[in-house]
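Notes from the 1:1 (GR / supervisor)

We went over the backlog. Supervisor wanted to see one worked example end to end before approving the batch request, so GR pasted a single chain during the call. The sequence is below; no edits were made to it. Supervisor asked that the structure be written out right there so they could see what the output format looks like.
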Amino acid sequence: PHRCGACDSCGAGTSAAVREAPFRTGQPVEHREWGAGTVSVVEADRVTVLFEERGYVTLDATISSESGLLRPA
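Structure output shown during the call:
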């Protein structure tokens, strides 16, 4: 619902109202199985996290947040 002013959608004037994302880029997070990670990409429906041992993993943002699978560290 708020223009960030930094993404392609804002630059093109095509940003759409979306619910607030449960994660933000650069945020440290904790995964139940893979441990500590850092959010690298946030999209409307998914989040990509860099885990030291596992590498980059893309997860459904809503499921990860609501289930507690991925939580802020």
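Supervisor's comment: The mean pLDDT is 83.
Batch request approved.
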